[in-house]
Amino acid sequence: MKIEQIYTGCIAHAAYYIENNGEAAIFDPLREVQPYIDRAIKDNAKIKYIFETHFHADFVSGHIDLANKTGAEIIFGPTAKCGYDCTTAEDNQEYKVGNYTIKVIHTPGHTMESTCYLVSDENGKAHGLISGDTLFIGDVGRPDLAQKVAADLTQDKLAGYLYDSLRNKIMPLSDDLIVYPNHGAGSACGKNMSKETTDTLGNQKKTNYALRADMTKEEFKAELLDGLTPPPAYFPQNVMMNINGYESLDSIMSKADKPLTPKEFEAVANQTEAVVLDVRNENDFVKEHVPGSIFIGLHGGFAPWVGALIRDVKQPILLITPEGQEEETITRLSRVGFDNTLGYLSGGLKAWKDAGFEVDSIESVSPEEFAKHYKETIVVDSRKPSEYSGEHIENAINIPLDFVNEQLAEVPKEETFYIHCAGGYRSVIMASILKSRGYHNMINVEKGISGIRNASIPLTDFVCPTTLKK
Known about the structure:
- By secondary structure, this protein is an alpha/beta fold.
- The protein has 3 domains: 3-237, Metallo-beta-lactamase, Chain A (4-Layer Sandwich); 248-354, 3-Layer(aba) Sandwich (Oxidized Rhodanese, domain 1); 364-454, 3-Layer(aba) Sandwich (Oxidized Rhodanese, domain 1), CATH 3.40.250.
- Helix content is 30%, strand content 20%.
- It is built from 16 helices and 22 strands.
- The strands form 4 sheets. Strands 1-2-3-4-5-6 form a 6-stranded mixed beta sheet, covered by helices on one side. Strands 7-8-9-10-11-12 form a 6-stranded mixed beta sheet. It has a 5-stranded parallel beta sheet with strand order 13-17-16-14-15.
- It is globular, with a radius of gyration of 24 Å.
């Protein structure tokens, strides 16, 4: 059977392409839709349907642009209400893609409209389950996102719905079904996802904590809700874009893909209060950058970090990118709803310096140099609490990058402090944010905890996250 997973690691997202007998369907497409169109052209097929498993929170789907470009019908599950032309299917309704059959299975819980799609071949044999955020490999969807856009829902109520959906709709299905989820490890839509991106349903029944046969609803809710961290601030904004509609990516690109001279760049920054976002490698940023700019490198978890730290998707953004990666950066911003890019610095840092503008830098030391000083100074650990609890420098302050805005008061204002993460990426992001807020008393530790460990600095297990005395 022809089911292709199209996986995008930056946001740990999986879309699916199904084709049979000249007809194709796309499930949960990303914002940039041309690759799906090209894939169908390669098969000499027409995209007939665009199936959405739910209103996504962590990315803006490409369903509207894809429908406008291909004439395909957008299908959502029961209870979905769109601000554009779409079809709300009924539970157990079936659709034909060539000789394949797509059956709608309404599975509320992650969100109320959440729906899985059972895919059967030309002989009527069920082959796979496109499970959206209802069922992941090793986990299930978090039940606290829909409550952000619907006041009458609680995470406890949604968790109860999800328990019923899993047991009444999913677990009775055949063990040999292949589960095709919408996300893999690294997505904020779950908490314990596997690095594997497909599995059989039978194996998930054996290994996924949420599918234990003897689990009561109360036990399920307790385990599911335990350890949930607050979702990124951009999630509700993405949900509303997916519900109500959005400007086409072609239009966004035409406005954003705009080279600016250094003087133009500075003028736009001053006139609009735009965030200057530098997406180069962290080592390049440390050496020199435009004063006041924020670093979030393209090579890391770029889009989710932008969404977590910039907060408002309408925020004007000016870009500093590696040469030739301007379009990629704009596209990746738009994947998570940041559609207000105003242009980019033409010629990069070289042009900026050649025009006589100043650059700034971040003081940075090797782990070996840090080893000479860490006992007599304040250390800020910018990793997640779960990483910190595994091992950390004794007496280090844990200020996770995710929550630097909320915990800004805990950052030392006067004393010099060292900052590190796991490998060197997140600490530079945090240092850039702090520097833009007027903090100039930090020193970045290169290579993060991995380098610190190799420098023979002793690490301790969890005690209790240290915070500064107020």
